[in-house]
Fold this protein.
Amino acid sequence: MAMEAPAAPYDAAEPGPSVEITVSSAEQMRELGRRLAKLLRAGDLVMLTGELGAGKTTLTRGLGEGLGVRGAVTSPTFVIARVHPSLGDGPPLVHVDAYRLSGGLDEMEDLDLDVSLTDSVIVVEWGEGRVEELTDDRLQVLIHRAVGDTADEVRQVALTGLGKRWAAADLSVLAG
Ligand SMILES: Nc1ncnc2c1ncn2[C@@H]1O[C@H](COP(=O)(O)OP(=O)(O)OP(=O)(O)O)[C@@H](O)[C@H]1O
Ligand SMILES: [Mg+2]
């Protein structure tokens, strides 16, 4: 009798639309964040993947500006997550640095964030393998820097929408 291999939980997410964007400076990365903010709404999860210094926090900074939230987005060195409330009536931004989050989702639910994650836009750095079980719907952002030249400011950013939430999204607006 044939047996189906059990799928990893994150395999449930259907890859949807994707776009690849070349970003040539930190300011352009921020601008991309500001544009991305317009596509986001409460309950959305954005997962940022890229090596140290790739520009994940820089992108999140632009996102915070685009969402119009309080407080500068910085690298949360000593905290795992920081909540930036909206200055208007938009959703708060929850910025998670999962680098030190060893236990995954359970630990995140224990953070006592004082906001409901479904009412927030959640951006997670270093989330792969840790937060997929939060939802099948997520925007995956991969940031690559040009190999071999550490002075190079050029980044390739690949964004892919996963799950129903993103199935009909038009990511081409991000290319500017
Ligand atoms: N095209 C670019 N996009 C983003 N950042 C850039 C770019 N070019 C240069 N930089 C610089 O690279 C650094 C990126 O740092 P940032 O904190 O955003 O990275 P990170 O991916 O969050 O790193 P970490 O894994 O340590 O959290 C900043 O100093 C930024 O000014
Ligand atoms: Mg960072």
Observations:
- The beta strands are 15-23, 45-49, 81-84, 93-97, 121-125, 138-145, 155-162.
